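Dear colleague,

Following up on Tuesday's group meeting, I ran the structure prediction for the four-component complex that the binding team flagged. I've pasted the input sequences exactly as they went in, so you can double-check that nothing got truncated or mislabelled along the way. The structure tokens for the whole assembly follow below. Feel free to forward this to whoever is handling the docking comparison.

Inputs:
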Amino acid sequence: MSSDQLSNTFSALADPTRRAILAKLTTGEKTVSDLAEPFDMTMPAITKHLKVLEKAHLIERSKQAQYRPCKLHPEPLKDIDEWMEQYRQFFEASFDRLDDYLQQLQSKSEDINGNE
Amino acid sequence: MSSDQLSNTFSALADPTRRAILAKLTTGEKTVSDLAEPFDMTMPAITKHLKVLEKAHLIERSKQAQYRPCKLHPEPLKDIDEWMEQYRQFFEASFDRLDDYLQQLQSKSEDINGNE
DNA sequence: GCATTACTTTACTATCAGGTTAAATAACCA
DNA sequence: TGGTTATTTAACCTGATAGTAAAGTAATGC
């Protein structure tokens, strides 16, 4: 179940360790040890997290000597951003405020001009 | 583990049934039966999904006679949108194209001027 | 060739997630 | 009061997740 791409992406992001890994990758390619360094966790745990991120296509891996560097592959985040679009009108404060503002203007001009 | 708010929100969204429930709530308050209707799933399963959404503060519930209507509470989506901000530069096509364009300009000027 | 470094795989454990059926609760309505 | 409708709770099953320790692989470099 929940094997669709969007579910996979959300699921991969639902873990603070994995989000921290992605954040670290915004500064460029990193080795597994680089990524593991801040966490109080064994290497196999990190390997697993990387597998989850890879399966969700949020990272790409390569080989350089004995290293297997990771780099950010942000496209799935774009899909989330697009999914979010349908909700943006419900949570965007600036939009709400603009809307309120426009409605205020509207009612003021009605007061002044006596429009219907 | 992963008890932080953002993880909770991502986790709640990592299920197509729950995303469909949220989508349906964009058109207004709905009863549990309304929400359950499109799914090939028993009521207890829906109750559980609603509990997950409620725990993630993505919905709010009330009481009206024997109904317990649900309404969208989109604020946590705003948090995701804000989290996304740090990645937007990596996936926004317009930015990428601008970046490509600047790099092209750069390499052209290198060709012409013989810069290192 | 052999130790070291950098990982991954395997096997195992514990907990959580998503579903079920059956029973419980709670408000309406005749 | 007692039946019907709406929803939840309880108990259970199954499979996935997140971690571990220990062994395996693979490239580097003396």
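The helical segments of chain B are 5-13, 16-25, 32-36, 43-55, 75-91, 93-113.

Cheers,
M.
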